[in-house]
Fold:
Amino acid sequence: MSYLARRLLTFPLILLGVSLLVFFSIRLIPGDAITAMLGTEAGLLTPAQRQALAAYFGIDQPVVVQYGRWLTGLLRGDLGVSVTYGRPVLDVILERFPLTLELALLSMLIALAVGVPAGVLAATRKEKASDVGIRVLAMLGQSTPNFVVGLLIIYILSVYFGFIPAMGAFTSLWVDPFANLGQLIFPAITLGFAFAASVTRISRSAMLDVLSDDYIRTARSKGAPGRSVIWHHALPNALIPVVTLSGVEFGYLLGGAVIVEQIFALPGLGRLTLDAIAQRDYALVQGSVLFIAFNFLIVNLLVDLAYAALDPRIRLGAR
Amino acid sequence: MQIWRAILAHPTGRIGAAIIGLYILLALLGAVGLTPHDPLQQFRIDRLKPPSGTYWMGTDLFGRDTASRLMVGIGQSFIIAFASVGLAALAGSIIGLLAGWWGGVADGVLMRIMDVLLSFPAILLALLIIAIVGPGTFTSVAAIAIVYTPIFARVVRGPTLSLKRREFVDAARTFGSSQRYILSHHLLLNLVAPLTVQVTLALAWALLTEAGLSFLGLGTQPPAPSLGLMMSEARNLMQQAPWLLAFPGLTIMLGILGFNLFGDALRDILDPRSQERSS
Structure:
């Protein structure tokens, strides 16, 4: 069986595993959804009212029956109703997703725009001052938690520029692109910081690998100008590991950046899930976690395909 | 001890080792109570004091000494990081070894379970576990251990697959060595190098994750000092008392940097291929 076919076959299996894990683990959380939803007022409910509410949200059945119902609903694209929002889970998720997607794309853009040139520069100036400087910065970038970067950015903005990034209600890109960018640029820099550091390190080591290859020596001895050798001959091959790394990181970012969303008060997928766990909103936690895992797996699959497209030597079946 | 000499001769390995050594010393001093002040004592008249001769790194909103709290906080972070990575390495190695050794269906099932765990963002998986068990030190250890187990399983499984076809394994079997003996003595010993590198790098990630969890208020519970929690408490005071943000931030960063530098150096030393690339 080819590698690709095997990947496609295991895909639904892993999703099924994720669904089982989420469904049953969230039911281990102490406390019930109705009490979490109504707070102290839950104490005022008559047993009959409580029963009716449980039936409405489908949580009165045995767990296995609930799982079966949820799974068949899934196949119809129905993720159930959120107890907290009183609306279909999929609607709530899709409302938050554009922000998360935009933030992930913007962070990746920053990481690649900074990381690839920095990595290439470091590789071509190996052991010179600029290489050492870039490596030190990249190491620091990888070692700094994103909340430290985020708080530092907020501190600099507020103390030195008297500017506080707009928080709260999210402005869509289509409504007001400038306001939207103003809201997302600093969180994106925060996330892009460590991401750029990883891209720099991997670009540098991939570039060093490629630069020592025979075909680069051939190109040089044929008199190809140094810059052309680096950008046209070496870089395309050095980009292969960069694509893999960026894909995996991007896949994780699509899961929402809980901490950065918290610092910048952004209503993204990460905070939605965090709040849903706190609220015991079973349907919402299940839905969002499954959605996140699905995105992650899809992105990884695409990375594998891109990998094959970038490197004709790789025949997926041969791996 | 050859490995220590190699690390100390390595330019960044030396720095990493020095940072880790310093942190362990500070944590030990904090653990036996040799801090400048009592980390929990509130000096009410000295609230929000900037760094000075008495309070080297200033005081917080309750008049507690930042430097003393950092020392204890480092210990707390290190205990969680070492315990969780130790557990993850143990569980991951066993799973990876068995998957690689048995092959076939068992391998498929075990590794797909690892894939399921890997398809969650780390912090989200940890949050789910904390929601079930409730926050605290032991929960943080368990959550971080579960998050990093699949990585160790993968690191061990690959080499196991190729090692088990090697002649020395056949030889051991011919001589009648038990399966357990072959796994623990022949295979595991050959995996020490990649595992050591992975453990050091995982310690850096574990420190990151622990700091993130306690920043969200889901790790170490107050009033016990923890680096992430100190940052989170300093958020609303950043204008009046920037030192409350600066010192814990630098402490976290430097600690993680130490393990990253140390891990990179170890990889250079133990994996000759990567050395050609980076030096």
Notes: The longest helix of chain A spans residues 89-124. Chain A touches chain B through 48 residues (CB under 8 Å).
